[in-house]
UniProtKB/TrEMBL annotation:
Top enzyme category: transferase
Protein name per the record: Phosphate regulon sensor protein PhoR
MF annotations from Gene Ontology: ATP binding; phosphoprotein phosphatase activity; phosphorelay sensor kinase activity
Domain of life assignment: Bacteria
GO cellular component annotations of the record: plasma membrane
Subcellular localization(s) per the UniProt record: Cell membrane
Keywords: ATP-binding, Cell membrane, Kinase, Membrane, Nucleotide-binding, Phosphate transport, Phosphoprotein, Transferase, Transmembrane, Transmembrane helix, Transport, Two-component regulatory system
The species this protein was found in: Gynuella sunshinyii YC6258
Entry's Gene Ontology BP terms: cellular response to phosphate starvation; phosphate ion transport
Known function: Member of the two-component regulatory system PhoR/PhoB involved in the phosphate regulon genes expression. PhoR may function as a membrane-associated protein kinase that phosphorylates PhoB in response to environmental signals.
Reaction(s) catalysed by this chain's protein: ATP + protein L-histidine = ADP + protein N-phospho-L-histidine
Entire-sequence positions represented here: 172 to 441 of 441
EC number: 2.7.13.3
Residue ranges constituting the Histidine kinase domain according to the UniProt record: 41-258
C-alpha cells in the first residue's frame, strides 16, 4: 500500500502487565478520504448549473410586467429555492475544505475589530424589520493569526444565527475580549434559546432543533459544523450555553499563542 496508517494504544493492567494494540486503519482513512472527495467533487459540479439557473431566473423576474401575473409567485419560489441550494453547496464546499487533513490555518493577521464591525453591519441589514439592537463590545485590540476567510465564516455564522433565532426587538451582543490565557469572541442573544439535550449535538452536520424554523430562515444546518471546524484549525473551542425562552451565548475561545500581537512579542523576546 502507498500509505499505511496504524493506530497504536497501550493498556496498562496493574503493576507489570502491558498490552500493546496495533490496528491498521489505512482502509478506514481511505474510505474517509473517498467520502470527502465525493462531497467536494459533487458540490463543485453542482455550482455551475446553479449559477446558470439563478441567472435565467433573475432575468425572468426582472421582466416582471411582461410575464403573466400567475408566473410571478412560482418564479420567486424557484429563485428562493435555488438560493437555498446555492447556500448549501457553498457550505458543503467550505466544510470539506476545512475538514481537510492538511494544516489549513495559515498565518495571516486577522483584523478582528474590522472583521466584527463588518459582520455586525451585515447583521443589521439582515435583521431589517426585526429591529434588533445589536451591540459590539471590543475590549482588546488583539488580532488573531490564521485564515481570515474561515474565521469570517465562523463568526458570521454565529452572529447571523443570533439574528435568525431572536424575535423582534431582541438584543444581540457581540464581544471580543481576552485574559492572560485566552481570547474570547462571543455572541449573546435574547432569542428563543435551546434545550440542554440538543446542545451537545448542535455542531453535527445537518443537526437542527426545529427543521421548519431553520429552513424558513434559509439555514442549511451546516453553520455550526463550519464554526467547529474553522475554530479547530485555529486551536479554538466553542462553548454554548442557553436557556429556553431567554437566549443563548456562543463563545469561541482561542489560546493566547494564536493571537497576532503576542506572537510578535514572543518572537521579539526569543
Ligand atoms: P441552521 O442553518 O439550521 O441555522 P446551524 O448549524 O447554524 O444550522 O445551527 C444548528 C441549529 O442550532 C439550528 O437549526 C438551531 O436550531 C440551533 N441554533 C443555532 N444558533 C441558535 C441561536 N442563536 N439560538 C437558538 N437556536 C440556535
Amino acid at each position: 500500500r502507498e500509505h499505511l496508517t496504524l493506530q497504536i494504544a497501550i493498556t496498562i493492567y496493574g503493576e507489570n502487565e502491558r498490552l500493546l494494540w496495533v490496528r491498521d486503519i489505512s482502509r478506514l482513512r481511505q474510505l474517509e478520504q473517498m467520502r470527502k472527495d465525493f462531497v467536494s467533487n459533487a458540490s463543485h459540479e453542482l455550482r455551475t448549473p446553479l449559477t446558470v439557473l439563478q441567472g435565467y431566473l433573475e432575468t425572468f423576474i426582472d421582466m416582471g410586467d411582461v410575464l403573466p401575473e400567475r408566473m410571478h409567485r412560482p418564479l420567486q419560489q424557484m429563485q428562493a429555492q435555488t438560493r437555498r441550494m446555492t447556500n448549501l453547496v457553498n457550505d458543503l464546499m467550505l466544510l470539506t475544505r476545512l475538514d481537510g487533513d492538511d494544516d489549513r490555518r495559515g498565518d495571516m493577521q486577522v483584523y478582528v475589530r474590522q472583521l466584527l464591525e463588518s459582520i455586525v453591519e451585515d447583521a443589521q441589514a439582515l435583521s431589517g424589520d426585526k429591529h434588533h439592537q445589536i451591540e459590539l463590545n471590543i475590549e482588546t485590540e488583539a488580532d488573531l493569526m490564521g485564515d481570515p476567510n474561515s474565521l469570517r465564516s465562523a463568526f458570521s455564522n454565529l452572529v447571523f444565527n443570533a439574528v435568525h433565532y431572536t424575535p423582534e426587538n431582541g438584543q444581540i451582543i457581540v464581544s471580543w475580549r481576552q485574559d492572560e490565557r485566552f481570547a474570547y469572541m462571543s455572541v449573546e442573544d435574547s432569542g428563543i434559546g435551546i434545550e440542554a439535550r440538543h446542545i451537545p449535538r448542535l455542531t453535527e452536520r445537518f443537526y437542527r432543533v426545529n427543521v421548519s424554523h431553520s429552513t424558513a430562515t434559509g439555514g442549511t444546518g451546516l453553520g455550526l459544523a463550519i464554526v467547529k471546524h474553522a475554530l479547530q484549525i485555529h486551536d479554538g473551542t466553542l462553548d454554548i450555553s442557553s436557556e429556553v425562552g431567554k437566549g443563548s451565548t456562543f463563545t469561541c475561545r482561542f489560546p493566547v499563542k494564536n493571537l497576532y500581537q503576542q506572537q510578535e512579542e514572543q518572537l521579539a523576546e526569543e
